[in-house]
Design a protein that fits this description.
Strand 1, helix 1 and strand 2 form a beta-alpha-beta unit. This protein starts with 5 loop residues before the first strand and ends with a strand. It contains 6 helices and 8 strands. The protein is globular, with a radius of gyration of 17 Å. About 30% of the residues lie in helices and about 15% in strands. The protein binds zinc ion.
């Protein structure tokens, strides 16, 4: 099941875009130049997240002060735009925003460090950039941080555990 909300995040809120991708949300990222652009995004059901006061009162716009990303996530959760039951942690490429595909271990060998190839229980790959992701300790830190931000219980969020290869 895909998360329902789709986002277009203003360039000035890059960390927010990354967090939305970590949570499994479709989060495109770029400049917002015109009212027409916002109208088109709104019509296709995409939520525009911006810190630019110029767009604040446009339909389909979620205005976010350029504060800490933790605070921004909390606001999105409070507004019901991100929801615990929709979260699919690390199911999307952080670089390209594409949903990841599971791959067999043999395809990961040579693309990840040897100790990871030997020990990680599963692997995913981005069909766009080819980056390989696998379960790791990084995920635990992210999960803990997100739990602190929202108060959501980790056990109620998706248990997929992946880490990425640089
Ligand atoms: Zn990618």
């Amino acid at each position: 099941m895909e998360p329902r909300a789709r986002f277009f995040v203003d360039r000035m809120l890059g960390k927010m875009a990354k967090w939305l991708r970590i949570l499994g949300y479709d989060a495109r990222y770029g400049s917002i130049e015109t009212a027409t652009q916002i109208e088109i995004l709104h019509r296709e059901g995409t939520i525009v997240v911006t810190a630019n006061t110029r767009w604040r009162h446009f339909p389909g716009v979620f205005f976010c002060e350029p504060t800490r990303v933790d605070e921004q996530c909390r606001k999105l959760a409070a507004a019901g735009l991100i929801r615990q039951e929709e979260v699919r942690l690390f199911s999307r490429c952080l670089r390209c925003n594409r949903p990841l595909e599971e791959i067999p271990k043999e395809e990961a060998v040579g693309r990840v460090p040897d100790y990871v190839a030997a020990t990680a229980p599963s692997f995913c790959r981005c069909p766009s950039c080819g980056r390989v992701y696998w379960p790791g300790s990084h995920w635990d830190k992210m999960r803990e941080r997100f739990r602190r931000i929202t108060g959501w219980s980790p056990k109620d969020m998706d248990e997929r555990r992946t880490e990425w290869a640089e």
